[in-house]
Please model this.
Amino acid sequence: MDIQLLRVFLMTAQEGSISKAAKKLNYAQSNVTNKIQQLEKDLKTQLFYRHNRGITLTPSGQVFVSYTEKILNTIQEARAVLSESAVPSGPLRIGSMETTAAIWLPKILPDYHADYPNVDLSLVTGPTEQHIHAILHYELDGAFVSGPIDHPELIQDEIIEEELVLITATSHPPIASIQDIDTYTMLVFRKGCSYRAKFNSILQEEGIFPTKLMEFGVMEAIIGCVSAGLGISLLPRSIVNLYEQQGRVRVHYLPGKQSLVKTLFIRRKDTLVTPALSAFMEKMRSKLG
Model:
């Protein structure tokens, strides 16, 4: 089977559009269509439904996506094994929650880069849900996410236990319990963020439902808007320490188990641990473990 056919199929499946896939691959649309038809002929099954709104994966196509990802990843790993020496080098794709990237990764990355300058490290920030999806689809080599995680295809290392705190504007009165909150506007990261899910769960346990939810893409925007009195947020204590010292926000502590969350480093069980990834995990454990 032609590997290029698999690449065209996977790109088309990911984009959900022949025209978008053609643009990404720098192919003519007719070329993409022909390659998909050739693959369907080889497999003796239909991979896409064609309709006036475009294309949709058939059940067979959905199954074949996971196999295609594994095949292409295995080929990439084989090339890496044959081309790499014992010295860490080549690409390394790491995902991280924005809070982890801001506070903890500066303890790792400078030394790692100095020790292994031939590694081309890419850091992708985003919510936990996004990184789990990316790991499962071989798009990342490893990722820092918020626990707990329970998935049979993932290996996880517990790295840090964080304390979560409520933050409000400095003018907000003390909060002895969740019921003391005087605004129910939540300022959160986009959907898929574990802190957002935790915040929502805590409020619901107290019978409180937010009147408004505002999504932000970056942490600084959340803290700035909290400081201005726009609403409240739930973030790790390590993140807000400096802002509290600067008098920009007020910190309120949560009781016991509600306040604790674990940061994990996850990777797929069936992926190759390259010298670059092995060296990164060693550095991570020595700096954060």
